[in-house]
Write a structure and sequence with these properties.
Mean pLDDT: 91
Strand content: 15-25%
Number of strands: 10
Largest sheet: 8 strands, mixed
Radius of gyration: 18 Å
Distance between the termini: 23 Å
Order of helices and strands: EEEHHEEEHEHEHHEHEHH
Structural class: alpha/beta
Shape: globular
Strand order of the largest sheet: 1-2-4-3-7-8-9-10
Length: about 280
């Protein structure tokens, strides 16, 4: 794998910001360790890409430091991108247009630099906690941009924990969401139930959803409720759960499970899968 850490200028954020990308070389999985020299020079084309989002109080480096994301990308044949979303909830807010950066500007810049796919059928989205909210928010606001999404350990942000918010969290809600009262935000861009309903009646192609949350997670009830709403709206959604709480011991295994699920669902591009198998 090629692993790139970058400082890159964002017009959407009006500043330099961090991102990291891993991209398969011209061989994937165990082929490298088998030293199959013929595979070094195959033209694999552009790689399917997974945009992987972090949680609150984290940054672009979390997935690389605390999980085996790079190893899974090599094994399954994906590129992956992480960004620093700060406490933006992946929205366009008064401190920067994070939604535009994630969904439009950065994909265009990276596709011009690197062999990663801009085909919506080969773009995927995943994230935990605040990144799980971001996965739902972005995937439901722009459903035509992603073949599948994987929200982890997140439900409807507006129904979770506001009554217990401390002074810092209340300040964050005001700064980043625009209100300290969740009822002010119902029916808007931070309300994933509203976004799901709008997406369902939009007529757009909807992403398949691999929804996961550990049954010991503080977000479990909210995640389960959100899954049931999506199911009632006839999204193609599966709910995956096992023992686990709100940490990387759980999320590490589930990002690999998402990669495997993409292949199981037939969403991995055949143009690469055929070469991988030698056909």
């Amino acid at each position: 794998m090629a692993f790139l850490q970058m400082d890159i200028f964002s017009d959407s954020l009006a500043r330099y910001t961090e991102a990291a990308v891993c991209v398969p070389e011209r061989y994937i999985g165990r082929q490298r360790r088998n030293h199959n020299e013929a595979d070094w020079y195959k033209d694999w084309g552009n790689w399917p890409v997974v945009w992987v989002l972090h949680g609150a109080s984290s940054n672009y480096s979390d997935w690389w430091r605390f999980s085996s994301l790079e190893r899974y990308c090599e094994e399954y044949g994906f590129a992956a991108v992480t960004i620093s979303g700060d406490l933006s909830f992946y929205a366009n807010i008064n401190t920067g247009r994070y939604y535009d950066w994630l969904t439009a500007e950065l994909p265009a810049k990276l596709a011009a630099m690197l062999p990663i796919s801009s085909d919506p059928r080969e773009n995927f989205l995943a994230g935990f906690s605040m990144g799980g909210h971001g996965t739902l928010k972005v995937g439901l606001s722009a459903p035509e941009k992603y073949a599948a999404i994987c929200p982890m350990s997140a439900g409807n942000l507006l129904l979770t924990g506001w009554e217990h918010a401390d002074a810092r969290q209340t300040k964050d809600h005001a700064l980043y969401l625009g209100s300290t009262k969740p009822e002010d935000l119902f029916g808007g861009e931070h309300d994933v139930y509203y976004l799901a309903e709008e997406a369902a009646k939009s007529g757009k192609k909807l992403p398949k959803i691999f929804y996961t949350c550990g049954y010991g997670d503080i977000a479990y009830e909210g995640a389960r409720e959100c899954f049931e709403l999506l199911q009632s709206l006839r999204f193609d959604v599966e709910f995956d759960t096992s023992e686990g709480i709100h940490n990387f011991d759980y999320w590490d295994g589930k990002i690999e499970a998402f990669f495997a699920w993409i292949k199981k669902k037939g969403l991995y591009p055949e143009r690469i899968a055929g070469k991988e198998s030698g056909t």
